[in-house]
Design brief:
Layout lengths: L9 E2 L5 E2 L17 H11 L13 H20 L7 H12 L29 H16 L5 H7 L2 H8 L7 H6 L1
Antiparallel strand pairs: 1-2
Helix pairs in contact: 1-2, 2-4, 3-4
């Protein structure tokens, strides 16, 4: 299986991935107000990268950078004082993270006499630390007075909603609860 966690990553001719593009950006509080909209777009673009959470030891630094950026994006959307001009990019980031193949934790193949495997504890998506923040971002974006509803409706379409509703079938109760 290819490493889907680096969609759009540059590849060297030998096939090795170049990760240098994924690095922390300045915090919103550290830039002048005039630069915040551009920084918002840069952070949204970086947060479109979907990491492979099936290996908990892989890309730890990058996953933490993304988690921190997602938290900053939630705060920015919550306190924004201007219309979000790029609804497409907002929905693209949300879709990239939420409308993806789930990463269930591998289950051990144990046969236990008298135990119905259908009644096992539900598996938790190892990507939950990021997904939870993206769900919060979606909620804040939809509830924000700065969201242009007409523009958002163009991108939050039937296909997007159907993909989200599909997570009602998820084995992860945390994900179900956030839908």
């Amino acid at each position: 299986m290819a490493d889907a966690g680096w969609k759009g990553a540059n590849l060297k001719p030998n096939g090795n991935r170049v990760f240098s593009a994924y690095e922390a950006l300045p915090a919103f509080k550290d830039v002048p107000a005039s630069e915040k909209p551009d920084l918002f777009v840069k952070k949204l673009n970086l947060c479109c990268v979907v990491f492979d959470f099936s290996d908990p030891t892989k890309n730890l630094k990058e996953k933490e950078i993304k988690r921190q950026m997602l938290l900053e994006l939630v705060e920015y959307v919550t306190s924004a004082n201007g219309k979000f001009s790029d609804a497409f990019l907002l929905v693209k980031m949300i879709s990239a993270n939420l409308c993806r193949s789930p990463n269930p934790q591998p289950r051990e193949n144990k046969v236990v006499e008298g135990l119905d495997l259908e009644e096992e504890e539900p598996s938790m998506d190892p990507a939950w630390p990021h997904l939870q923040i993206v769900y919060e971002f979606l909620l804040r974006f939809v509830a924000s007075h700065e969201t242009d509803a007409k523009l958002a409706k163009i991108y939050v379409d039937q296909s997007f909603i159907i993909k989200l509703l599909g997570y009602f079938d998820s084995e992860d109760p945390l994900q179900k609860g956030n839908i």
